[in-house]
Amino acid sequence: MQREVIDRFARGELSQKEAQLEIEHFWAGALRRAVIDGDIEAGSLMAGQSVGFVTRAQSTAEILGELVGQALAVLAARRDRAPARVAAAFSQP
């Protein structure tokens, strides 16, 4: 898609501003397809600031295990700080 827009710009069919707008619309749509629609094959996923937080290679199981462990720790801390009636609701199956 980008190559096609560049070629159209080079042939004079699009102004620079029009070409930029077409590419921006494509990428905004691609992000929506991936993030909102869940179509990661036709969509575009963003990688940016969060990449700096990666400190080592991990399997999906390890990452999910860490996330679940962190979530459980937060829930437990909230339960411990909650009034008795709220804490009772947390402990019921």
Which helices and strands, and how do they pair?
Layout: H1 2-10, H2 16-35, H3 60-81, H4 84-91
Global outline: elongated
Count all strands and give the number.
0
Order of helices and strands: HHHH
- Contiguous low-pLDDT stretches (5 residues minimum) are none
Instruction: Quote the beta fraction.
Output: under 5%
Provide the residue-averaged pLDDT: 83
The largest pleated sheet is described as: none
Summarize the amount of helix as a percent range. Answer: 55-70%
From the helix content, strand content and strand pairing, which structural class follows? mainly alpha
Structural description of this entry:
The chain is 63% helix and 0% strand. The mean pLDDT is 83. The protein has helices at 2-10, 16-35, 60-81, 84-91. By secondary structure, it is mainly alpha-helical. Helix 1 packs antiparallel against helix 2 (16-35).
